[in-house]
């Protein structure tokens, strides 16, 4: 969540709790489970960043775990989850963001395995650095995979979530250019609580005996 270790811990715990409820509601619609679990994943992500704060940044296990979720995992998780939950008519076009996400995840996984990711505490934000070659290409593929898949989903609730995350990305780049990865992930984590409403609306009605 930025600002402090306590803020990350409190926000992460609350968002993860929302994720638990979301997963429980989606249990009767297995295709919705990957997206329903996104608040749980992002909540845990914020809790991990609280450990990064407590370690004063650096290159420890918490930093690597945070980067592994933020970079390759989300690049693949989001478009795959959208493809699972999307209406049948939208699935063909969603292959494009899924392919972009798979490519970005492969490159980012290789980078994390061969390079050292560092975290730097900068006032009330955290900056992460991995030293990627041609990062602009990876950023385009990452945004197509995450935001693009939501916007192309054909589902009103997911499109709304995608618009909100896209606006958050633009704001974070404008305000925290060097720390936008951390701040955008925090914004996405908070925004992901909207998925609880999305799951609740899609839950099949109980059948009376």
The tally of beta strands, per DSSP, is 2
End-to-end separation in angstroms reads 46 Å
Percent of residues in helices: 55-70%
Main pleated-sheet profile: 2 strands, antiparallel
What low-confidence regions span 5 or more consecutive residues with pLDDT below 50? none
Cα gyration radius (Å): 17 Å
Summarize the structure.
By secondary structure, the chain is mainly alpha-helical. It has helices spanning 5-25, 33-36, 38-54, 61-85, 95-114, 135-151, 156-175, 180-191, 194-202, and strands at residues 118-122, 125-129.
Give a structural overview.
The protein is mainly alpha-helical and 209 residues long. 69% of the residues lie in helices and 5% in strands. The protein contains nine helices and two strands, in the order H-H-H-H-H-E-E-H-H-H-H. The chain has a two-stranded antiparallel ribbon. Strand 1 and strand 2 (125-129) form a beta hairpin. Helix 1 packs antiparallel against helix 3 (38-54), helix 5 (95-114) packs antiparallel against helix 6 and helix 6 (135-151) packs antiparallel against helix 7. The protein is globular, with a radius of gyration of 17 Å. The termini are far apart. The model has no long low-confidence stretch (mean pLDDT 89).
